[in-house]
């Protein structure tokens, strides 16, 4: 066992009731909306994540595994394989580089990578049979224990390819699910990821149910018997039934959690504080931007899917007006369909926002592709919900990491965007100006007489709007204010 060895936590462990799981620590999700950002939250999470991985490494020694714990992947030493069907060679390489980054985020060591140019994946073994033999050779040569394919494979393809390469084969979907399982922290997030994993694994249970459990207990490569029936059909049927029961229970629990989230959101909607949702491709620097704009310590990590639960932070614009920033889960190409549901809370944040700050990594070789991957998912959800998409402000981040030529190119391609560096702070004042301009757009001006007994209204005016002039009288304060129209309705009875 190497230090990088780990198993995923097993959120679907049949003996762990979801109700026993600790509550989210209150630093994630909307419950901190009114609370103060703890500046070290991100650091704490990062530390916890690192220590969890070390401890989890030990648990691969566990021999007591059941068929149901099929999810205990051991992604240690991996070879990547991709089929390049369209686009340029550079795009194919970028897709593999992203797969490598995903694998490393999951804790694996990438030993080799192979790409095959084909018009479409081989229906039997994903890559062609000649290439599969080559892959087998690469596995032997590097001593890899896992092959990761850059796509979603059918259960039959996985099994057939495992037969040739004689080590465990997983696909991009399983890999992303694994990362989500490691990173989810809130109860709802954990439950949703478990559900997505089960949905994904159910049809694949026979294919790898037995090989997984063997492998989790034994050495890599010991699953030469894939295709053997293992403990028999009956056992698998029992497992399937247990998984289905577990899924039904999870669905019920998730529904209940969703209800309370809706209640929280409704509470938030009662005030007119503008909601800015920061969304974009994974690793674009969304959390860094939220930190830079609010001075709080949201978790930042050079890893994909560092953020899994929407995190909300309050900030004050320099005219004294409050806004709320929500940091969200990153998007990725080929997001597993099972995970779109797990993304639901992030997507709801996006749909509900007053302004969407769409962050893109300007130092990425293909920012335009990332932008369209993100917009595609957002549009799907918006259409599904029958909602309208919020206005979007494109934010090109990491401009400290690009040269002048590249910058000129990006300005040409993405003219209207705000160009910033969350790291150096460059461009942030302009971004704040754009945000302020946007936020002020729906304001109305009016003059009100606020009695001295209504200190609450005065502070709300400062928070949600702007005081232009103010004059004390015998009964109270006469103020000329500029406030959002929803709040203007509240002030209407005091109009002078
Ligand atoms: N050079 C440079 N690096 C940056 C900048 N902003 C963020 N980064 C780095 O990019 C990496 C990802 O940053 P995060 O803020 O975690 O990105 P994210 O979009 O929240 O990522 P996920 O939550 O994983 O989707 C980290 O290593 C940051 O230090 C920037 O302006 N310049
Ligand atoms: Mg993040």
Automatic annotation (TrEMBL):
Domain (Hflx-type G): residue spans on this chain: 274-443
Sorted UniProt keywords: Coiled coil, Cytoplasm, GTP-binding, Magnesium, Metal-binding, Nucleotide-binding
Compositionally biased region (Polar residues): 1-10
Compositionally biased residues, Acidic residues: 14-23
Region (Disordered) location: 1-34, 212-233
An example molecular function term from Gene Ontology annotations: GTP binding
GO cellular component, one term: cytoplasm
Compartment(s) of residence: Cytoplasm
Cofactor or coenzyme needed: Mg(2+)
Signal peptide coordinates: none
Positions that bind GTP: 280-287, 305-309, 327-330, 397-400, 421-423
Compositionally biased residues, Gly residues: 218-230
Annotated Mg(2+) binding sites: 287, 307
Segments forming a coiled coil: 233-260
Subunit structure, as described in the record: Monomer. Associates with the 50S ribosomal subunit.
NCBIfam families listed in its UniProt record: GTP_HflX
Entry function: GTPase that associates with the 50S ribosomal subunit and may have a role during protein synthesis or ribosome biogenesis.
Family stated for the protein in its record: Belongs to the TRAFAC class OBG-HflX-like GTPase superfamily. HflX GTPase family.
Designated name of the protein: GTPase HflX
Source organism: Gordonia mangrovi
Gene that encodes the chain: hflX
């Amino acid at each position: 066992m190497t230090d990088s060895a780990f198993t995923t936590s097993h959120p679907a462990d049949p003996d762990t009731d979801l109700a026993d799981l600790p509550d989210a620590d209150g630093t994630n999700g909307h419950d901190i909306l009114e609370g103060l950002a703890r500046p070290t939250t991100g650091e704490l999470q990062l530390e916890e994540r690192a220590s969890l991985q070390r401890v989890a490494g030990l648990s691969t020694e566990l021999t007591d595994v059941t068929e149901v714990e099929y999810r205990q992947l051991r992604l240690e030493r991996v070879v990547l394989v991709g089929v390049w069907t369209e686009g340029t060679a550079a795009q194919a390489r970028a897709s593999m580089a992203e797969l490598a980054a995903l694998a490393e985020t999951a804790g694996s060591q990438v030993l080799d990578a192979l790409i095959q140019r084909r018009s479409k994946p081989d229906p039997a073994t994903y890559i062609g049979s000649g290439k599969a033999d080559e892959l087998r050779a690469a596995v032997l040569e590097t001593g890899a224990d896992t092959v990761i394919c850059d796509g979603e494979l059918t259960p039959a393809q996985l099994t057939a390819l495992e037969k040739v390469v004689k080590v465990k084969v997983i696909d991009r979907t399983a890999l992303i699910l694994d990362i989500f399982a490691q990173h989810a922290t809130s109860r709802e997030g954990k439950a949703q990821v478990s559900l997505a994993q089960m949905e994904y694994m159910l049809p694949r249970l026979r294919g790898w149910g037995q090989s997984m459990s063997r492998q989790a207990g034994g050495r890599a490569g010991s699953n030469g018997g894939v295709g053997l029936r293992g403990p028999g059909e009956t056992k698998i049927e029992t497992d399937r039934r247990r998984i289905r029961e577990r899924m039904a229970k999870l669905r019920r629990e998730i529904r209940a959690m969703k209800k309370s989230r809706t209640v929280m959101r409704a509470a938030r909607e009662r005030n007119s504080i503008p909601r800015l949702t920061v969304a974009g491709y994974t690793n674009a620097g969304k959390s860094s931007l939220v930190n830079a704009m609010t001075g709080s310590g949201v978790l930042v990590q050079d890893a994909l899917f560092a953020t899994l639960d929407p995190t909300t932070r309050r900030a004050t614009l320099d005219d004294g007006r409050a806004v709320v920033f929500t940091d969200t889960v990153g998007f990725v190409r080929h997001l597993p369909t099972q995970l779109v549901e797990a993304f639901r809370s992030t997507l709801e944040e996006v749909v509900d926002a007053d302004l969407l700050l769409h962050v893109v990594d300007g130092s990425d070789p293909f920012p335009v592709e990332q932008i369209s991957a993100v917009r595609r998912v957002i549009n799907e959800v918006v259409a599904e919900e029958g909602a309208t998409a919020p206005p979007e402000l494109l934010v090109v981040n990491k401009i400290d990491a690009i040269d002048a030529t590249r910058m000129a190119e990006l300005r040409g391609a993405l003219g209207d965007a705000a160009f910033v560096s969350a790291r150096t702070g460059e461009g942030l004042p302009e971004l704040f100006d754009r945000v302020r301009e946007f936020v002020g757009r729906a304001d109305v001006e009016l003059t009100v007489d606020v009695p001295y007994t209504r200190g609450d209204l005065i502070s709300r005016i400062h928070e949600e709007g702007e005081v232009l002039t103010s004059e004390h009288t015998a009964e109270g304060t006469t103020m000329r204010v500029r406030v959002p129209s929803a709040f203007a309705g509240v002030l209407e009875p005091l109009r002078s």
